Amino acid sequence: MKKYIKYTLVMFSLFNIPLSYSATGDSGWRDISQIGCHLNGGTCYVSLDINVGPAECSSNSIRWNKDSSTAGKEIFSLLMAASAANKKVSFQVSDQCYGNFPTFSYLSVLMK
Question: Keyword set for this entry (predicted)?
């Protein structure tokens, strides 16, 4: 019976790993499912295939302000191009929140 319980717990853990990454740091290579900007206020977002970010704002939607961020518009353009080319992206997720959502300090696009 103990073996069955251990086996069940291990299998449950293995199947749940890719569903959530509620932590800061490297997100790993991710697919983009949505990208957009709010009409007013300059907030842009990208939706990924898993949740990322600190516990208080964990979400699959990463946000930033394209107008007040130094490279905010360039980031949006880079993500649009990556999304259109079906490329994977990796974010360095910040330990701070942007409102109720995670944000990031930099990103990379997998070109292969």
Answer: Signal
What's the confidence (pLDDT) of residue 24? 81
Reported as a pLDDT band with limits 50, 70 and 90, residue 14 is: very low
State what percent of residues in the chain have pLDDT above 70. Answer: 79
Number of domains in the chain: 1
Determine contact, residues 99/64, Cβ cutoff 8 Å: no
Least Cα distance to 53 among 4, 101, 110 occurs for 101
Say which residues have a Cβ less than 8 Å from residue 14's Cβ, sequence separation at least 6: none
48 is in which domain, residue-wise? Answer: 22-109
Rounded Cα distance between 63 and 37, Å, is 9
pTM greater than 0.70 (yes/no): yes
The dihedral built from the CA positions of residue 110, 32, 59 and 11, taken in this order, carries a sign that is negative
